[in-house]
Amino acid sequence: xTTIATSKDALAQAKTRMEKAVEDFRKDLAAIxxxxxxxxxxxxxxxxxxxxPMPINQLxxxxxxxxxxxxxxxxxxxxxxxxxxxxxxxxxGLNPTNDGKVVRVPIPALTEDRRKELVKHIHRVLEDHRTxxxxxxxxxxxxxxxxxxxxxxxxxxxxxxLDELEKLTHSETKKIEDLSATKEKEVxxxx
Length: 191
Fold this sequence. Notes:
Elements: H1 7-30, E1 46-49, E2 52-55, E3 60-66, E4 69-74, H2 80-89, E5 97-98, E6 103-106, H3 112-149, H4 155-188
Helix pairs in contact: 1-3, 1-4, 3-4
């Protein structure tokens, strides 16, 4: 955390850090399977390519030819079995097939049990990110109280800043909760 000299610095830093937490949550949600094909599902999968773990999107072109399949066309045909193996060993529960040139990843329909598991996972990720936002609020609040003790800001300015910080925290938490509710609805929706 950079040093905070004014209340404006404190709010700017809080906003930046909280927005990063929201964006991180958005990325985490994109990697959760909903029964509909989405190339973001494979963002977390790493392929051991020549001894270096690499994301799949750096080894080839990913596309979604239909709602139930992801197609991976590697630039190096030698990477096909490596990509296949990486997807199989990931915890996504996907079973890819390959013809030596491309890897096809069928996205099976979600079972009711799997949907419930995914909703629980979404709630865990949501709580982690809510906690991150609250920790940012705590850090910034402590920094504002410190600069008030150092007589750099008045008590009124501290109160105003903390009120703004509270509004910002509430706003960013609401964004996270809205994203979570949308994703939960998507997971529970039966196609």
